[in-house]
Amino acid sequence: MKYFKRLAVTAFAAAAFSLGASSLLEAQEAPPGDAGNGKRLYLADGCFTCHGRSGQGGAFNGPAPSLAKTDMPFDGFKAQLRDPANDMPAYSTAVVSDQEIADMYAFVQSLPGARSAKDISILND
Asked: Quick count: other Cβ atoms within 10 Å of Cβ 124?
């Protein structure tokens, strides 16, 4: 009888864990965003001064990473805006809403990422 209880508890725990893991994976997906509004916010909030107008990155106040076609998941992007590392200013919900962050994320995802050197003809001469 103890064996069956242990088996039932293990099965229940495994099922609960798998449900939790699937919701964790869903949390990584970006909510729908409006890239046009994201571009407006990106420019209005001054993100371009460090990250460049096309999200290419820069060195205004130290190295600022490229954001174009970022591999960073939405939750990481949002966390960086809310509680940033280094010299980046923090953007509270009173300044930038979660939807506005989703819009900016949609914008940076819409930008062309870095091209391979072999795709740039002048570098292949």
From this structure: 8
